[in-house]
Design goal:
single chain; PLipase/COase/thioEstase; hydrolase; about 220 residues; Rossmann fold; 6 helices; about 35% helix; Phospholipase/carboxylesterase; alpha/beta; 7-stranded mixed sheet; globular; AB_hydrolase_fold
Length: about 220
């Protein structure tokens, strides 16, 4: 089974190539039926120290759904973990080509959140942390899971209490899986549907500020 690669010509960057240097990179992964322009609107709410790259998923959803997708969805229960892994591998290939040795974190919404977490699972050495908004952990086991259980990298998981898009069994699976494989922080937001609120953005900002502090601490020691 193959998966199309990410198109570098449609990536939105927050700064020019000359300004990137060795700054940490935060890669944004949009949701189903969206594109690289969607989450780029979050840039003003994110720490300036990150170089932000918003990429476009490589698949097209069935007509008439607009935008792009990371993997097919056949009904609410049709999320194939193998397809999520293929999407994660495509993200990793793009990161290797476009980012190089800079420290990388991922922020994904919905389907993009699932891919962000799967990317961390596929290659724990390539991703420092993940922000999963209205997303989930795909089922199955991956070789990187044992590494994550030992290292426990930082993961933020935020979701709305009124979100009826992600099936309850996947929410339950994620609730069980993340505590044993990450340094988990996050919140369930009362009244929030399948979307992002200002309270959640504030929490994400605090999480990202802490990751920058971690990097400074590691450089000092």
């Amino acid at each position: 089974m193959s998966h199309p690669s990410l198109d570098p010509s449609v990536v939105r960057w927050s700064v020019s190539p000359a300004e990137r240097g060795d700054r940490p990179v935060l890669v944004l992964l949009h949701g189903y039926g969206s594109d690289e322009h969607d989450l780029f609107g979050l840039v003003p709410y994110l720490p300036d120290s990150f170089v932000v790259a918003s990429v476009r998923a490589p698949l097209a959803p069935p007509w008439p759904t607009p935008g792009a997708s990371w993997y097919p969805i056949e009904g609410l229960d049709g999320r194939d973990p193998a397809a999520v892994t293929l999407a994660a591998q495509a993200v990793l290939a793009w990161v290797q080509d476009a980012v190089g040795s800079a420290r990388v974190g991922l922020l994904g919404f919905s389907q993009g959140g699932a891919v962000a977490l799967q990317t961390l699972r596929v290659d724990p050495d390539a991703v420092s942390f993940a922000v999963v908004l209205a997303g989930y952990a795909a089922g199955g086991e991956l070789p990187g899971d044992a590494v994550l259980a030992q290292r426990r990298p930082p993961v933020f998981w935020g979701r709305g209490a009124a979100d009826d898009v992600i099936p309850a069994p996947l929410v339950d699976l994620t609730s069980q899986w993340l505590p044993g494989h990450s340094e988990l922080s996050g919140r369930v937001y009362p009244g929030l549907t399948h979307s992002i609120s200002q309270d959640e953005l504030d929490d994400v900002r605090a999480f990202l500020d802490a990751r920058l502090a971690d990097q400074v601490g590691a450089a000092v020691t």
